[in-house]
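Changelog-adjacent note: as of this version, every example in the card shows the full chain rather than a window. The one below runs 171 residues end to end.
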Amino acid sequence: MPDEPKIDDAPVLPEGRFDGREAFEGIVRAALAAAAHRGWKELVFSDPDFADWPLGERSSIEALKAWSASGRRFVLLAQRFDVIERVHARFVPWRRMWDHIVECRMVRGEAGSQVVPSAIWTPDWFAHRIDPERSRGLCGADPRARRELRESFDESWRVGRPAFPASTLGL
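Full-length structure tokens:
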């Protein structure tokens, strides 16, 4: 993906429809790069397993380090976290180091029950992969769409259970 245009050295976030895995990966990278510049206090990432997200890339971890600060909150919602541990090797140590700002919940996707959306929510922008298989979706700043997405996250959070601990303690 070409260099993102910048305004006052802050990455410009995409608006509108997107189509394809490369486009979605670029959107995730743009959101991570924008997080510190925009001073977002909260990031919510949601996906069944995060298998095709660029979370383990060096640039993603650098962006997360730049964003991580006191008073921040990073929420991860998934149906399973084992893929993150296998596929995103750089992300796991970052998660361990920043455990105090990271909250993870697993939502069981049983027959007839809610499936977590594949999406990003921030205080003033969102990206929602409506068709995760083809990486098609919509992103932007529309308040109504952000509110509806947040309500979906809140419902997943309510029915989920804690998961993906920073460490596992044995007896």
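Structural remarks: The domain at 13-162 is CATH 3.30.870.10 (Endonuclease; Chain A).
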